Amino acid sequence: MKSINLIWAVLFLFSCDNKKIECIDASPFGNVLKYISAQNIGDTIEAKKYIDISKVYRRFIDSSNSSANELWKNDLLFFSQIGKDKKFTNFKYFDYHFFQSVKSNKAKVTFVALKKDAKIQQIEYSLALLDEKRWIIVGIEFKKLEKK
After folding, report:
1. Beta pairing, strands 135-144 & 106-113
2. 139/36 Cα distance (integer angstroms)
3. 14 — phi, psi (to 5°)?
4. Which pLDDT value is given to residue 16?
5. Where would a tag sit more exposed on the chain, N or C end, judged by fewer CB atoms within 10 A?
6. 126: β partners
């Protein structure tokens, strides 16, 4: 009986050696989650670590908006305030599928709604590898439910 237990113990140890646990903190998906978290609490210092503000917001600058940074701060303030309002709820991650694709120094993280009637059907974050170790958000696109 002892030899059978020993065999099971050895098999268990060898099977555990073959499994790898990977930390995804520095992955594109990890950085998007950290950005969303910082955005929800209105932490501009932390949020800036994960986004290239000028690349994300440059397409929205016009004569009524003075800078990408101003637009971003307004968005950050809006999202942090809406998260505190009892009429609204925070982002429900369980209502979305998550996808991550990485090609060389570019990546996309996509949240796809499970519910066909969700107002926002898809959120896509485009990321670029900054210094061989750090991913940064360079684009955010919201795809809304099309009205029929």
Report:
1. unpaired
2. 14
3. -70, -35
4. 47
5. C
6. 108, 139
Residues 6+ away with beta carbon under 8 Å from 24: 30
Q: Which among 111, 75, 76 is positioned nearest to 92, based on CA atoms? A: 111
Amino acid residing at 98: F
- Give me the helices (H) in 18-101, please: 28-41, 44-47, 53-57, 68-84
Contact assessment for residue 140 and residue 55, using Cβ atoms and an 8 Å cutoff: no
DSSP H or E stretch at residue 4? helix 2-17
CA distance 103 to 85: 39
Residue 53 neighbours by CB under 8 Å, 6+ apart: 68, 69, 72
Assigned token pair, 26: 């520095």
Distance CA(28)–CA(45), nearest Å, equals 19
Mean pLDDT of 126-144: 91
Q: What is the pTM of this model?
A: 0.76
